[in-house]
Amino acid sequence: MKDSDTSSWVSGLKIVQMSKNCSYHSEIKRTPCEALFGKSAIETSSKHYKRGLQEQAEKMLKASGKMFPPAVTGDNILVCIPDVDRGRLAP
Predict the structure, then answer these.
(1) Is residue 33 part of a domain?
(2) Is 75 within the bounds of a domain?
């Protein structure tokens, strides 16, 4: 926590948990995650994250489908350009 300049112990908890679950134990001759789930913690968490990303992508597609109906060839579409993206001399 000193490295990341935070005083909240909660932010470091996931790192500590992952470190503990990935460390090899001589008594059980494997990591705790492998003993419990049959897979390494990295494999388990990466599948969890991938599933979460897929769910979020589906939500975003559903929301954008409601906000922006499909365009047909020949339709006029107005695209707003934020001031941040304009050049100095642009109107």
Answers:
(1) yes
(2) yes
